[in-house]
Amino acid sequence: MKTVCRMCHGGCGAIVESVEGIPTAIHGDPDNPTSEGYFCIKGKAALDLLRSPDRLTSPLVRTGPRGSGTFQQVSWDTALERVVGELSANMKLYGPESTVLGQGTDRNYQEWVFRLANAIGTPNVVGPAHVCFYPRVMASVLTYGGFTFCDYDGDPHVILLWGSNKPNTHSDGVIGIKLLRAVERGSRVITIDPRRTQTAARSSLHLAVRPGTDGALALGMIKIVIDEGWYDREFVAAHTTGFDELADHVRAYDIDTVARITGLAPDDVLEATRAYALAPRACVEAGTGVSQNENCFDTYRSIAILSALCGNLDAPGGDLIWDPMPIEGRRAFPRTDLLTDDQARKRIGGDKHKVLSMSGWVAPGDLHEAVLSESPYRVSSLVLFGSNVLASYENTEAVLKALAKLDLIVVCDLFMTPTARFADVVLPASSWLERDQIVEFNSYLAARRKVATVEGCRSDEEIILDLAARLGVGRHFFPSVEAALDAKLAGIGLTWEQFKEIGYIRNEKRYFKYRADGFRTRSKRVNLVNNALRAMGYQALPGFKIPPPPSPDLPYIMTSAHSRQFYNSEYHQLPITSRGQSAPRLTVHPRTAEREGLKDGDEAELFARPGARGVRMAVKVSDDVEPHVVMADACWWYPEESSIDASLTSSVNLVTNNDRTDEHMGSATMRGVPVGIRRAGAPLGRAKRAGHE
Length: 693
Ligand code: SF4
What we know:
The chain is α/β, with parallel strands linked by helices. α5 (about 135-145) packs across α13 (about 295-310). The longest helix is centred in the N-terminal third of the chain and has 19 residues, at about 75-95. The model is unreliable at about 685-693 (pLDDT under 50).
């Protein structure tokens, strides 16, 4: 049966082979126009989700102290009644805003979570949006009224791969194979990344930028483009506002200053800018690498401005703004109209991280501060859909303290995680293989079809429907998930039954839409200077804060990245994905290793405060990083450990905090953290488990 993989955001076409209704094999679908048969190790491990003996298959109610892992199995009815009883009581006492919903990387149910929040009247939905996709989304929307995707099929001459390892990590509906195909057809890749990834090593130019300084580089590139006259004069005159103010603003970012801040050679900065700006067709693939520091929003804004100046917006082989598909999808389904203005104004952090708040999200740091201080009001309940916040959010210590103070924690997940272990009620969720969904991306709609059932589990959509009914807001929902899918598809005149037979509908690509309609901004132009931000109290032009320099105690700058076989904090318990790596790696340069007396395979501790608890990692010596940079595997945890403390001993978020956050988005500095390293004491690594090699 054909379906669409959701082991990550990518959306590769998948074919599941079954014998007597039981899936036996999974592989890529060669006929899928998006992925062309590509299928990565995570996709190949998907059937382990169905077979894993560690899957949660019964609702659990905590019977021992929080975090002890002592639970009692109960029926769905008992678990949901308990959740609804406590939520209702808490909301009656403290108001609907005292309930916070949360989600992780989303399995195509984000709009369901927001709809439930809006229906019950809470403005508070927390997630990793602040360090993931949303800084890019909001910077693009506020600059030119939409979000762009590289038009790889349009044969860009130059692809600027900025903080993104696209062939390894795949964003919504964008598969690295498209980039590789473009390269085969002659595209030149320039990579901006502190690490020499495999992609960087094969690029025509690699700028190993100092972590956290991409914003200075982007502003410097804008200055070069303006000074050299390499911008698209016609486009700038007809379709932008604020060019003179921008030109004045970037004067401070001369090439020598930029080189000093970023650690790059001036000639490399100049060459990268020349190649990008003068290419007849060029696009920028900016990834999460840029999202995780205090400059992230303005860095994306500068990158968006660079693209606009060079005339690459909506151009063939450039940065394409897709028309939305005509279904009731991510924009309409959340029903923001259900939330009153008074309630919306109560969003936690809304007065602080105003741009994130515009997108509907709450930053974890703001939530934890609110929980601990009970200001602006008491937060009583947290309901998490697929989110292991103890491993994935910055500042583990604050997360733990905040969780401990809540009256009710509910976690819906596939496996027991440190966060689920801390919950009062755990609801066993189904995997993507066990549910019907509409996959809605920029360039296509596709049907994810249910191929299996794991007894005892329910999809997040089913759980939300049930909770909505029991909480008395069922009138804002649907009688069934299929009825909701039918309603979503009404705009294209199909039912779910019909759509799943079709399987895939390609969106229509239209270039240069702004020539007829203008951009979807108030001025109809690209906002090089942003007066909306100015009115909100921010700088109208993108700024840059220089990160703190290394010190004798903290002589290195930490960046981090996810291992290819995992997806954020997921799949650490699956045999295929966890094979061959028993501990997270800390990649250090040979000179650093020598200085610290470390060698390959040694156990090291990474710390951000001398004397404080460190993160335990296995040393990998490599000149893939510069001597002043160390690279840590992110979101690591040990599923087999029975205590939260032991399972998180290698989580890099033990050394991240909320001290330096982006003022627009609340994005924590998770890359660009000054750190020290030291040799670790006791042995490191996961216990050998059945099913693991
Ligand atoms: S890239 Fe993502 S969507 Fe594609 S096979 Fe791998 S995990 Fe699945």
